[in-house]
Design goal:
heterodimer; A: 113 residues; mainly beta; 7-stranded mixed sheet; 4-stranded antiparallel sheet; 11 strands; B: 115 residues
Chain lengths: 113, 115
């Protein structure tokens, strides 16, 4: 009965590879997010979708491409991975009303070697 | 542009003592303010929020926070700290007039409670 789940939990890969991280929420929320947390624990929003529509697209390299097949899923595909992409990536969801808090997944620790 | 600051990287408190984790913000108009906690190797968990109304809001695990408009602050407090409160705490602000649901997180404060 996990609210927001992410797979995989850990991802170790080499530079230049392409990888995907999947996120699913069973809370019935309209809005989903991807965040990047760097080694200093600084948390930065990357993307947000509302009912499958992209509403936030921060200054992120276009090697990162989100995809939302339905409002319960938001996947993150990363092309040509670089060392600087190593971080923990969090998916989150919230109801559409912006007064509401976000529910975070457990995170995916990406290590690029 | 909206912003949020957590001036302390680390706060150390003895168990049983009161604790305060500081947060200040900058946003046009009245902000929506949130506190989250992150335990090691876990995602963020919501603690409490201020949207409108009473300036003192109570949340999970005995935490509370006071919204102070004149000082643009939203400090997190707890009357008696527990060792299990040791974690990373994030303050966050959302501009209610923003057309996109974007939350800005502070840099985080590591709270360490010694027995």
């Amino acid at each position: 009965d996990t609210a927001v789940s992410q797979t995989p939990k850990y991802l170790v890969t080499q530079m230049g590879n392409d990888k995907s991280i999947k996120c699913e929420q069973n809370l019935g929320h309209d809005t989903m997010y991807w965040y990047k947390q760097d080694s200093k624990k600084f948390l930065k929003i990357m993307f947000s979708y509302n009912n499958k529509e992209l509403i936030i697209n921060e200054t992120v390299p276009n090697r990162f491409s989100p995809k939302s097949p339905d409002k319960a899923h938001l996947n993150l595909h990363i092309n040509s991975l670089e060392l600087g992409d190593s971080a923990v990536y969090f998916c989150a969801s919230s109801p559409g009303d912006r007064t509401n808090e976000q529910y975070f997944g457990p995170g995916t620790r990406l290590t690029v070697t | 542009a909206q912003s949020v600051a957590q001036p302390e990287d680390q706060v150390n408190v003895a168990e049983g003592n009161p604790l305060t984790v500081k947060c200040t913000y900058s946003v046009s108009g009245n902000p929506y303010l949130f506190w989250y906690v992150q335990y090691p190797n876990r995602g963020l968990q919501f603690l409490l929020k201020y949207i409108t109304g009473d300036n003192l809001v109570k949340g999970s695990y005995g935490f509370e926070a006071e919204f102070n408009k004149s000082q643009t602050s939203f400090h997190l407090k707890k009357p008696s700290a527990l060792v299990s409160d040791s974690a990373l705490y994030f303050c966050a602000v959302r501009d209610p007039y923003s057309s996109a649901s974007k939350i800005i997180f502070g840099s985080g404060t590591r709270l360490s409670i010694r027995p």
